[in-house]
Write a structure and sequence with these properties.
It is a single chain. With 166 residues, the chain is α/β, with parallel strands linked by helices. Helices cover 23% and strands 42% of the residues. A hairpin with a 5-residue loop joins strand 3 and strand 4. The termini are far apart.
Length: 166
């Protein structure tokens, strides 16, 4: 205890104040970096547009030659035209191993409308598909749209024995 007091007494007063100010400045800078500006007003940020509510349902599967025909119901629940929608999907086998990676072009989806799209998957029998994963939205174009905005509002369902996940 005595050594600490002696050390403090030996430091000049200006040195102690400078250290305190330096620590205070560094602390304020750290808070600003971590928390952002303290006085940011509402007008300083742009509003984040809501996600586009898209619904994708695996509606039917049917054998097609040596492969499988997948029928999807795609519903645009938004009040905006989706000019073009592409979904990256992964087909998993019955053992859960990722097999084929595909990009399914859904095309144009009018506001508030549903469309059925069919895709023939050659060389993969329906019984060999254990699960389908919508891995990402590869493209989503339209007024103010983009893949991230469409991906944020995407939901999935299935009417078949093959699970469809997102």
């Amino acid at each position: 205890m005595t050594q600490v007091r002696t050390l403090k007494k030996s430091l000049p007063k200006i040195r102690r104040r400078a250290s305190w100010r330096t620590i205070a400045a560094l602390s304020a800078g750290l808070v600003a970096v971590v928390c952002g500006p303290v006085n940011a007003g509402e007008g300083d940020t742009q509003p984040v547009p809501p996600p586009v509510p898209l619904f994708v349902e695996l509606n039917a599967v049917a054998p097609r030659g040596d492969g499988c025909r997948l029928s999807f119901l795609i519903r645009n629940r938004a009040n905006v035209l989706v000019r073009s929608l592409s979904l990256e999907v992964v087909l998993f086998d019955a053992d859960g191993r990722a097999g084929q990676f595909l990009v399914l072009e859904a095309g144009r989806l009018p506001a508030g409308k549903s469309r059925v799209r069919q895709y023939d998957i050659g060389g993969t029998p329906c019984a060999g598909i254990g699960r389908i994963l919508v891995n990402d939205v590869a493209a989503c174009t339209g007024e103010g749209l983009g893949p991230a905005r469409c991906a944020d509002g995407l939901t999935t369902a299935t009417r078949t024995s093959i699970p469809l996940d997102y």
